[in-house]
Structures are given as structure tokens and as C-alpha cells.
Design a protein that fits this description.
InterPro entries: Aldolase_TIM (IPR013785), OMPdecase (IPR014732), OMPdeCOase_dom (IPR001754), RibuloseP-bd_barrel (IPR011060). 41% of the residues lie in helices and 18% in strands. With 211 residues, the protein is an alpha/beta fold. The protein is globular and about 40 Å long. Bound molecules: 6-(ethoxycarbonyl)uridine 5'-(dihydrogen phosphate).
Length: 211
């Protein structure tokens, strides 16, 4: 299965709800991050959860273990079903997120490598592979890996085996769904869907790549 994950990075509450409702029949999950939550409040999660799709909290949690626990408890209490954490704070910090996810019956994903050009500065020289080792060590559910660099996704698949890979960078950042869909478990797509005149139709265009 390759899921289509709508990245709902709009900053107007009613527009977010309108787009999410229109796209929901064409998508498998919705990812919400700082842009929408800072604009509309954490309560938007409860409204979105009513659409019946898994809701992923993209807060790239990156603190000491105790603070990560406190953040993740709020995330899951708000109605999210998964959280995204950074791995660079170390295994104990990631484990705090994984434990909070498990306590809530949810999932935790770790950023292994990012999709933008500047990501090469620090997500290089074996660092993504070390982050994948933290995923294995902590029992996290999977990684975030860049659709803009399919060859790197292939390399990271070797590291994570059957754990899930969710991949952003398709569309607006230049990633090609035809090149990435078969390599990953989830395609994360934002602007090319929510920025389209007809977001539902734009989401439907990804149907051939959902397996
Ligand atoms: O480029 P777009 O509009 O399709 O949006 C992509 C989304 O994925 C956006 O929310 C961005 O913050 C996120 N993202 C990346 O684009 N690149 C990354 O390397 C990581 C993420 C991300 O979502 O990280 C956690 C999943």
C-alpha cells in the first residue's frame, strides 16, 4: 500500500476544513503541522479527526525526553494518531515520543533525511543511517525520507527494512510520484493539492500511485 497523505499547511481554519473535507475521500491520512495549528489552535485536530482519517502531528518534536513526553501527551490527547519526531536529540528523546505514542495507541515517525536542498548540510555522511538505527533501537514505526532524492530513499529502505517510509517533496518541491511511490509507504503532498483550484481533483491525480 502506498498511502496519499495530505499535508494541510493552510493557515485559515475554515479553508483547512473545507479542503480536508473535499480531499478526504481521495486520501489515506492528513498531516497537520505548525502553520495550521498556530493559526487555528490545537482544537482543529478534533474537527479534522471527524473525517475519519488518521491524523499525523508534524511537530518534528526535538527536545529532552521529559519535554518530548509532555508535548506528545498533548498531541495524542488532541486527537492525533501519530507524531513526527526529530532523531538528532538522541535515542532517549525519541523513545519518549515512542512511549507516549504507544500509551495512546498511536504511532511515531522519525525524520531520517529532509527533502530541501540545504538538508545536504547535516543530513549527510552516514547521519541518516544513524538516525535509522535509532528508529530500530526505539521501536519507532518508521522514517521520513525525501521524495526529491529517490536514490536516498532506496538506500534508507535497506536500513529500515519493513518499517514504514513516509516521503515528502512530491510536486511543489520537484519530487515525481512515479519515481517514488513504489519505494515508500506514504506520499506526503501539500501545495500541489491544497493550492490547486480543485484540491479533490488534484488529489485524484495521485490515484494511479496509490496501491
Ligand atoms: O512541499 P509541499 O507543499 O508538498 O509540502 C511538504 C510538506 O512536508 C510540508 O509540510 C513540509 O514541512 C513537510 N516536509 C518536507 O517537505 N520535507 C521534509 O524533509 C520533511 C517534511 C515533513 O513533513 O517532515 C515530517 C513529515
Amino acid at each position: 500500500m502506498t498511502d496519499l497523505i495530505l499535508s494541510l499547511d493552510v493557515t485559515d481554519r475554515s479553508e483547512a476544513l473545507r479542503i480536508a473535507a473535499a480531499v478526504a475521500p481521495e486520501a489515506d491520512a492528513i498531516k497537520v503541522g505548525y502553520p495550521l495549528v498556530l493559526a487555528a489552535g490545537l482544537g482543529i485536530a478534533h474537527d479534522l479527526a471527524e473525517l475519519g482519517l488518521p491524523l499525523i502531528a508534524d511537530f518534528k518534536v526535538a527536545d529532552i525526553p521529559n519535554t518530548n513526553t509532555l508535548i506528545c501527551e498533548q498531541v495524542f490527547a488532541a486527537g492525533f494518531s501519530a507524531v513526527i519526531a526529530q532523531g538528532f536529540p538522541g535515542p532517549d528523546s525519541v523513545l519518549a515520543c515512542v512511549d507516549a505514542a504507544r500509551a495512546a495507541g498511536g504511532e511515531c515517525y522519525v525524520v531520517a533525511e529532509m527533502s530541501h536542498p540545504g538538508a545536504r548540510t547535516f543530513f549527510s555522511e552516514g547521519v541518516p543511517e544513524r538516525l535509522c538505527a535509532i528508529v530500530a533501537e526505539t521501536g519507532a514505526d518508521g522514517i521520513i525520507a525525501p521524495a526529491t532524492r529517490p536514490e536516498r530513499v532506496r538506500a534508507l529502505r535497506e536500513q529500515v527494512g519493513t518499517k514504514k517510509i513516509l516521503s515528502p517533496g512530491i510536486g511543489a518541491q520537484g519530487g515525481d510520484p512515479a519515481a517514488i511511490a513504489a519505494l515508500v509507504d506514504g506520499m506526503i503532498v501539500g501545495r500541489s493539492i491544497y493550492g490547486a483550484e480543485d484540491p479533490a481533483a488534484a488529489a485524484r491525480a495521485y490515484a494511479p500511485y496509490r496501491r
